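Hey, quick one: can you model this chain's 3D structure?
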Amino acid sequence: MEHEILESIKTTGDIKKLNNDRLEKLCSELRDEIINKVSETGGHLASNLGAVELTVALHYVFDSPNEPIIWDVGHQCYSHKILTGRDITGIRTEGGLSGFPKSAESEHDLFVAGHASTSISAALGIAEAKKIAGSDDSVIAVVGDGAFSGGMIFEAMNNAGRSKTNLIVVLNDNEMSISPNVGAMAKYLANIRSKESYFRFKDNLEHALLKIPAIGKGIFTALRSVKTFFKDMFYSSNTFEHLGFTYLGPADGHDIEMLIRTLNRAKSIKRPVLVHINTVKGKGYEPAEKNPSKFHGVAPFYKETGELKKSSGNSFSSEFGKNICKLAEKDGKICAITAAMTDGTGLREFSEKYPERFFDVGIAEEHAMTFAAGLAAGGMKPVFAVYSTFLQRAYDQILHDASIEPKHVVIGIDRAGIVGGDGETHQGTFDVPLLTTIPGITVYSPSDYSELGRNLEKAFSSEGVQAVRYPRDSEKEIPEKFKKEYGDFDYFKGEKNCLIVTYGRLFVEAAFAAEETGSSVLKIGKIFPIEQELIEIAKKYEKVLFFEESVENGSIAEHFGKMLIESGFDGKYKTFCVSGFVPHMKVENAMKIHGLDRESMINAVKEALK
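Sure thing. Here's the predicted structure for all 610 residues.
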């Protein structure tokens, strides 16, 4: 059989029956399975290939789900899904598995994880709950080194180190660069420190010394001080132990035998432990090892070569990056900030052209927003480029640090609206309600690339917090009569007494719907604050239909409708918005389900005109 060992795994208990050679073969089969399936659907590849041995070792040592594994971000959990009985065929597509942990899928997924730096907080809560219930089961949090740039991790570590729980934090470090000599020494020490004979000797020596009357405690304290000195010398920092964790590692994250020894030791300690392992992103697949950034989240590709099956071409993200570079060329005060998303937000070119004005702050959106406000207070013109879903974390900073005493900060909100395969944790359907609660903010939502450029120009030439939100995909062709250089709003009059109001990429669908039904279209470019002039246009119609890629509560549609009624509108007003959390599926399918596609718009207009 092609995957003989993998196919023999019916429960996680079967993994514990395998010897070292067969465990290594299992890892090889897992890599092959992940590459095969992700090449067809797309998904997170490099991070999953780097975590294969770790996942196998975790399930060999621990008893999931009784000893739950909490994944940070979760984009490294594909092996975990396979080993817990799930078929990843069609992952991230409608009807297939989520690309992240999801408790609705399996009892082995206790906690959803689409954002970084959350696992230790969640795992500590679970561990404390177990302790209260009288259980001494271990709880494991698997954290990538990137997540340690998020402040929430250190809040959790500070709390966890004082706890009396069986919490094990596995730091999966795939970015550390160590010189050959230090690397060889670290590997040697990790190998020694992970041997059971070493741990037994250490424990027995401590026990014996402490039993010696009068002088035993002093000798033990002296030896511990010598140990600490050498650990500080070899490892440079003892931050984890200062926070109250027992530190084990660094261990080779691709040596299955070493991983099992180290994890077994961590399990035996019965107090908070941090296990530090080194791994290689994309391990076992040459294209991903050479370019882990490209294969972090990848579209379908040819597994033989690693080439994408479909060229990505231009997108709103890349056009955003080009526009920021053009503006920065003319204005030396423009700075760009990203939270570990240089490529994803289109800022690679800016980072290379203007390195002194480019700041990657790590996975720290809260800090990024206040840092931007600080740059603005210092006379700069910062733009913070961030995915809509991650901007949610910085709400307090926008409100408190950038708006109360207004700072001129531009926020480039990428992946606004429905995003598709990443599902509930990444849909950009909450930023509009979030932003429109903040006094003094201005929000733009362009429908094409040229409008994006003009919106950014206005944002940089205005005052206060300016947000420009745009979708993940590329611009689409629209009917000829709707093509123009759009202003803050544009009104296209039809012959029927029905008005479609919308913004962003939905304008394309609205234009086609209006052309077929004879209705009018009001396209809003500056979506907030809503100008009274828009209300005066809309109140002339008997039927007004508002289409929006946002949850309804707090949406522009809701604000617009309130203003319309207050102005004396006596016609019928109906909103078509997103309801609830949108699961992973193609964008066009999600649009149809929520009545936001072209056909749904046409049917809605026809129904309104009856």
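One thing worth noting: The radius of gyration is 27 Å.
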